[in-house]
Specification:
Number of helices: 10
Order of helices and strands: EHEHEHEHHEHHEHHEH
Structural class: alpha/beta
CATH superfamily: NAD(P)-binding Rossmann-like Domain
Strand order of the largest sheet: 3-2-1-4-5-6-7
Shape: globular
Number of strands: 7
Oligomer: single chain
Length: about 260
């Protein structure tokens, strides 16, 4: 463990959408920010716009060689990691150009193609855990470190069990349930790491209009980024938290599991 003079963050899927907004806010607040993007050119373009102490890093969280290369780059350049923001995710693996309603209709548990389900879970669940495990040694080298994982209130079993939930019909077996699995794994990680220097947080942006849902969300990217940015910048939150915007989670911002 070493005493760091700069806070160093990695944001996955940071070349666009909520990830971009998080990376920009971190850079504006003095972080050295590694902007993770599957496409190096898109990552470079995002860095040019973000400015500050931002750097592009090629990172495909479903590719172990890509993950290892990113770890090597950050290890060489920074030596430690203060904050990991797991933002990269996909909503479907079917034909492009479909509306959100068409995607959700095809991803109901009774008919969801298993191959497509595996592809989405490979990114949202297994890839997210793989990149987290790979960066744990660098997080352990910081005096205090945090892992912030962008999830979704759509993955809340408590909310979806209630017929009063207006978004209940959107709880599908492919994307929605992948967030349930993600929540469970990262709650498990929070318990696993609760005696260490690393805090673990889950955060929902709300129903945000991004490429993830064919830009059909009710909130703008700026609105949907408010809570993830708050959590990414907060250093005093208790580990194992799951929060979201007040219009989805209530005044206390806590999302039920």
């Amino acid at each position: 463990m070493q005493t760091e003079t700069k806070k160093v963050a990695l944001v996955t899927g940071a070349n666009t959408g909520v990830g971009f907004q998080i990376a920009k806010s971190l850079a504006d607040n003095g972080y050295i920010v590694y902007v993770g993007a599957r496409n190096q050119e898109k990552g470079g373009a995002a860095v040019a716009e973000i400015g500050g102490q931002s750097k592009a890093v090629q990172l495909d969280i479903t590719d172990l060689q890509s993950i290892d290369a990113a770890v090597t780059q950050i290890q060489s350049e920074a030596g430690y990691l203060t904050l990991l923001v797991n933002n990269a995710a996909i909503s479907n693996a079917g034909n492009p150009g479909r509306t959100m309603e068409e995607v959700l209709g095809a991803q109901r548990a009774s008919i969801a193609p298993i191959d497509e389900m595996k592809t989405v879970w490979e990114t949202n669940v297994f890839g997210t855990l793989a990149v987290t495990q790979a960066f744990l040694p660098l997080l352990r080298k910081a005096e205090t470190a945090r892992i912030v994982t962008v999830s979704s209130a759509l993955g809340s079993l408590t909310l979806n069990a209630s017929p009063a939930n207006p978004y209940r019909s959107a709880f599908d077996a492919v994307y929605g349930a992948s967030k349930t699995a993600l929540n469970g794994i990262f709650l498990s990680l929070a318990i696993d790491l609760e005696s260490t220097n690393i805090k673990v947080h889950l955060v929902s942006p709300g129903f945000t209009a991004t490429a993830l849902n064919n830009f059909q969300g009710t909130d703008t990217v700026e609105e949907g980024s408010i809570e993830p940015i708050r959590v990414a910048l907060a250093e005093d939150m208790a580990t194992g938290s799951f929060t979201g915007p007040a219009n989805y989670a209530g005044s206390d911002n806590i999302v039920p599991w």
